[in-house]
DNA sequence: GCCATAATTCAGGTAGTCCA
DNA sequence: TGGACTACCTGAATTATGGC
């Protein structure tokens, strides 16, 4: 029995569509949402309703971020939604301002993924935002860090030095290390590696590029360094990972 | 809590092997 | 023959520790 048939058998028994937001209602530090192709909420958890000062979460269904959030936040969220809905981009670990309780702004770690129909069209997106707690009241550390994290996520294909990133954030190496660990539970170099491996996984399953080409485009000096790192992180060599995902998708 | 420094661990590069 | 993988050496990054 393949994983696909196990899934198909399970879903065929459901009395109603699988609803995840109820379990996410219990996470008071995490906002969960599903949106349609126009960026309108179709599923939200109670945490998002609480943040927006809305008693019933169903009142959010059909609305967009531009209608619900202050302009300073809503426009940024709408731009990110567009990237996912029009280009199928994956947004991973984006450090960004979000709305906490009582309309207070705080920092969160955002994830977004496109949702596809049977005929491979993007019909919506699924996402969540997990609260972070600022090491100082003003959140200045996160503001500087968010720029450095964006820099890493945009430049992981080139050489990145941890001391240089710490300087960019205006922090000592020690402070930078502690902040990154607080957010990601990873060291700075582990975070850089995770960013690279995430992108490599995407290219292995969504492109025909050779292992060597993927190694190069993910910032590894050569294919051997990539293979070693990839195997250490995922437990599989790049080719085995690609073959494994080909089997599961067929 | 932060920094400096020494010890330790880890990652990258080179060179080589294996295999289709 | 070219792509994928591995062993080994070296330098970089991380961790531990002591002092402020």
Describe the structure.
The chain is α+β, with helices and mostly antiparallel strands. It has helices spanning 3-12, 21-24, 46-51, 65-68, 71-87, 140-155, 162-168, 173-184, 188-206, 211-217, 223-234, 238-249; strands at 30-36, 41-44, 91-99, 105-116, 122-131. Strands 2-1-5-4-3 form a 5-stranded antiparallel sheet. A hairpin with a 5-residue loop joins strand 3 (91-99) and strand 4 (105-116). Helix 10 crosses helix 11. The protein starts with a helix and ends with a helix. Pfam families: HTH_18, PAS_4. GO terms for molecular function: DNA-binding transcription factor activity; sequence-specific DNA binding. Keywords: DNA-binding, Transcription, Transcription regulation. InterPro entries: Homeodomain-like_sf, HTH_AraC, HTH_AraC-typ_CS, PAS-like_dom_sf, PAS_4, Tscrpt_reg_AraC-type_HTH.
Question: In brief, what are we looking at here?
Answer:
This protein is 50% helix and 17% strand. It has 250 residues and is of the alpha+beta class.
> Would you list the SSEs in sequence order as H and E?
HHEEHHHEEEHHHHHHH
> CATH class of the largest domain, anyone?
Alpha Beta
Characterize the largest beta sheet: strand count, sense, and whether it forms a barrel. Answer: 5 strands, antiparallel
Under the CATH scheme, the architecture of the largest domain is 2-Layer Sandwich
Which percent band covers the strand fraction?
15-25%
Distance between the termini: 13 Å
Low-confidence segments, given as residue ranges, are: 134-138
> How much is the radius of gyration in Å?
20 Å
The spatial strand order of the largest sheet comes to 2-1-5-4-3
The backbone outline, from C-alpha atoms, is globular
Q: How helical, in percent, are the residues?
A: 40-55%
CATH topology type of the largest domain: Beta-Lactamase
Q: Could you tell me the number of beta strands? A: 5
Mean pLDDT: 77
InterPro entries: Homeodomain-like_sf, HTH_AraC, HTH_AraC-typ_CS, PAS-like_dom_sf, PAS_4, Tscrpt_reg_AraC-type_HTH
Keywords: DNA-binding, Transcription, Transcription regulation
Protein name: AraC family transcriptional regulator
Organism: Sulfuriroseicoccus oceanibius
